[in-house]
Amino acid sequence: MADIARKQIVLGVTGGIAAYKAAEVTRELLRHGIDVQVVMTEAARGLVTPATFQALSGKPVFTDMWDPRVPDNMGHIELSRGKDAIIVAPASADFIAKLANGLADDLLSTLCLARECPLIVAPAMNRQMWDNPATRRNIERLLRDGVAILGPASGDQACGEFGMGRMLEAQAIAPAITTFFAPKLLRGVRVLITAGPTFEPIDTVRGITNRSSGKMGYAIARAALDAGAKVTLISGPVSLAAPAGAETTRVETTAQMFEAVKRNASRADIYIGVAAVADYRVDNPRRHKIKKTDRNQLSLRLVPNPDILAWMAARPRPPLCVGFAAESRNVDAHADEKRRRKKVHLMVANLAQEAIGADDNEVTLLDNRGKHRLERAPKDVVARQLIAHIAKLYGSRTKRKP
C-alpha cells in the first residue's frame, strides 16, 4: 500500500441506490489513512442519512450551500480548500451531466466547479442510462477535461437487470485512489503506446479489421499519465476520446502505425504494444469499389504486415518492450513462446474471446521472473496494476545499466 497518510479528500455522494456503497468507500479510505469529508446531495439524503457518514468519518456532513457552520457561508469554496482531491462515488447520470456541462445548482456540483484539486468520478446507474449516447458524450467530455473515471463495472443491478453501470466496489475504488495518490513511479519517463485495431483496405469501402475497441490501450495511456509519464499514443480507428495529456496520433493501416512508431522510437524509454495489429494486408487494394456479380468469385492475395513489436525489440538500444497476446486457447503457453521469440521484456496474455471489446479484463503477465496473474477487474483498474508492474521492471532495468 502506498504511503498516502495525511491525504485529505472530499467524498461526494449523489442520488442512486449505490449510495449505500459510499459508506463502505468511506471506511476503506479511512483504513488507507485518508482523511474524508463527506458532502451529500439532497437525493443522496433520501437513501442514506448524513448520520451514517458522520459516524464513519468522524466529521460533520455537509449538504447545504448556505450551511452556517462554514465561515461566510462559502462552503462551495472553503470545503475543497487544501484538499488533495474530490471523489464522487456514486456519480449518478444526472450529476455526470452537470459536471460535463459546468452546472452548479447545489453544494456538491458547485464544489466541483470551484475546485483547485483533481476530480475523480465513480459512475453508477442503470445499464440503459450508461449506454445512452448523452451519457457517453458526457463521459468523453469529462475525460477530455482531465477528470479521472473509475469504472463502472458489469453486474447485477437494483432494477433486476444485468449489465454495465454498476458502481465499482469499495475494495476496488480504494486501491485506485491510493494509486492515484502514490508517488509518480514513471515521472518523466517517455512511454510510447499503440492501441486499437488497424484497418487494411480491400477497396475504397471495404477492409480487413478486428473487434478491438482500444479500451485497454487507452486505459493504459491514462494510467501511465497518472504515474507521471510523458505519453505518446498511436491509435487505430476507435470511438474513444484521446486521453487528456497524451500526444495522440491517429492512423488506420498497420503501415501507417509502423511509420508513426518509427518516428517516435528513438525517444521512447518504454514501448507498450497494445494495438491489435493486422498480421496481413491485401497485396493490391482496388482504387474503386469492387462491383458484385453473380458469376464471379473474388480472390484476395494477402501479404504479411511488418511486426512492429519485433522491430522495436530488435533495435540496437531498444526501450523496455511490452507486448500483448490475445489467444483463443493455451493462452499462457502461446504468449510465453511469443515473448521469447520476439525477445520482449514483458508479455501480457489474455483470452481473446473474453477481452476484446469488453469493459473488464483478466490477464497474466509473463516475464523472466515467471507468471503474475491479475484478477478480472475493469480495464482501468487492470491498467494501473500493469503500469505498477512495468515501473518495477523499468526501475530494475535502469539500475543495471552502466
Write a structural description.
This protein is of the alpha/beta class and 402 residues long. It folds into two domains: 174 residues, Flavin prenyltransferase-like (Rossmann fold); 198 residues, Rossmann fold, CATH 3.40.50.10300. 35% of the residues lie in helices and 24% in strands. The protein has 15 helices and 19 strands. The strands form five sheets. The protein has an eight-stranded mixed β-sheet with strand order 12-11-8-13-16-17-18-19, sandwiched between helices. Strands 2-1-3-4-5 form a five-stranded parallel β-sheet, with helices on both faces. Strand 1, helix 1 and strand 2 form a beta-alpha-beta unit. The protein is globular, with a radius of gyration of 23 Å. The model has no long low-confidence stretch (mean pLDDT 88).
What would you say about this model in short?
35% of the residues lie in helices and 24% in strands.
Mean pLDDT across all residues, rounded?
88
CATH architectural category of the largest domain:
3-Layer(aba) Sandwich
Task: Quote the distance from N terminus to C terminus.
Answer: 31 Å
Helical segment count: 15
Largest sheet: 8 strands, mixed
pLDDT below 50 for ≥5 consecutive residues: which ranges?
none
Q: What share of residues is helical? A: 25-40%
Report the CATH topology name of the largest domain. Answer: Rossmann fold
Q: Proportion of β residues?
A: 15-25%
Which geometry do the CA atoms define? Answer: globular
What is the CATH class name of the largest domain?
Alpha Beta
Spatial strand arrangement across the major sheet: 12-11-8-13-16-17-18-19
Radius of gyration using CA atoms only: 23 Å
